[in-house]
Amino acid sequence: MKKFTVLFFSLLLSVCTFAQINLGKDMSLKIYGHVRTDFFYNSRDNVQSVDGLFYSYPKDEVLDANGNDINGSDNSNMYTVYSRMGFDFAGPMIGKAKTSAKIEFDFRGNGNDNLSALRLRQAYFNFDWGKDKLLVGQTAHPFFGEVSPQILNLNTGSPFQPFGRAPQIRYRRNNGSFQFQLAAVWQSQFKSHGPTADDGTGKGNARNQYPHKNSNIPELALNLDYKANGWIMGVGVDLLSITPRTKAIGGDGSTYKVDERLTTLSYEAHIKYQKNLWMVAAKSTLGSNFTHTSMLGGYAVKSHDTKTGERKYTPFRNSSTWINIVYGKKWKPGIFIGYIKNLGTADDMEMGDNKVVYGTGTNIDQLLSGTFELTYNVPHWKLGAEYNYTTAWYGKNQKDGKVTDTHSVANNRLVLSATYSF
To answer: If we measure between CA atoms, which residue out of 149, 160, 371, 388 comes closest to residue 274?
Structure first.
């Protein structure tokens, strides 16, 4: 396997000399990618993935017997796993449609234990009839869209910005300055939270395949955009329906088949201006159980059947807003500010021994983050430094899901990055 990998990449490097490769009649291939190195430093432990490269927010305090914060230790590391390679195929024509395809991967693996292993980022084919386009395969979630922060941190603004990639069937219609998009989306690498196993107990809390897989209903996302004179303005609405469990353990200890479902709507609005040396962008998202896009939230049990154990659920709702300003060409300073507010649950949740919550950051009342960066950009190269300060206000959930009796926890993060693109 190692010999094959070495041979494979040797062949790729040998053909990368040619930016565009002719594959025969009406077909071509473009190879692209980058080699990227990131160094990061944090002043405390954080909620994160990829062993700290994908940063979200600071963990809450955990005090030892002497009153010292166990999560207060600083940490740092350096990785190259976000080096990337992709292949863009163009052609042939099928009827009046231009066809194309993309496949792209990096080396971040899955989770923290498989770093440097290949991971599929994007893989799709596309039909283009001019005004109408149809995409089938895995690419960015529709709410990530064309308006996202330009920052060095690999989280691309998460958890303030919806982030993720997913298998989907996406139809897009362009009519002058207006763009309409409708997508049916499934979950793969980025999943909803729920019980850690489909065993009927409902225990555990982690991103896993069962809630959306058991639903049999794809996520539906509708987006409308207006584009003209350097401006992009748009809105979106998303419908997600999940089935946390298909069986439950009842009050008598027996296992029962249950019919559980939670259906939610999430919304977003975005604006971006990019012209000359300026880039100014902002997005606001009202997420309801929107954790599969790397955002805060989740859902809780609001009632249960004492005989069968069947549950009804209520979603956590979070309001998230960010703004990003970048100026320049060779030297590009930029700022990013993000804010999240926990709006509580749609209905009162069960408390005491019956309290069950699935999600991430559900005990955070507010999250505030500020970033300043400076990058140096020349052909093929991007060098940059970024400082981020994030504060989370942790507390206790009330019956309505809102968080009170809060205390703040902050993290200082420094990122140094170098990227060679080809």
So the answer is: 149
Q: Which amino acid is at 123?
A: A
pLDDT, tens digit, 9 for 90 and up, residues 120-169: 999 999 999 999 999 999 999 999 999 999 999 999 999 999 999 999 99
In whole angstroms, give the CA distance from residue 400 to residue 300: 10
User: pTM for this structure?
Assistant: 0.91
Q: Which residues pair with 47 in a beta bridge?
A: 57
Residue among 374, 384, 388 nearest 419 (CA): 384
- Asked whether 248 and 200 are in contact (CB, 8 A), the reply is yes
* Residue 248 burial by Cβ neighbours in a 10 Å radius (0-12, 13-18, 19+): buried
The answer to whether residues 21 and 72 touch, using CB atoms and an 8 Å cutoff, is no
How long a stretch of residues is the chain? Answer: 422
3-state secondary structure 130-198: CCEEEEEEEEECCCCCCCCCCCCCCCCCCCCCCCCEEEEEEEEEEECCEEEEEEEECCCCCCCEECCCC
Q: Are 171 and 181 in contact (CB under 8 A)?
A: yes
Whether 394 contacts 366, CB under 8 Å: no
Q: Tell me which H or E stretch contains 8.
A: helix 2-15
> Bridge-partner residues for 22, per DSSP?
28
Tokens in use for 311? 């549950």
DSSP H or E run through 10: helix 2-15
Token code pair at residue 144: 């990530």
For 19, 113, 192, 204, 360, the CA distances from 207, given in Å and listed in that order, are 39, 16, 5, 10, 9
State how far the Cα of 168 lies from the Cα of 181, in Å rounded to an integer.
12
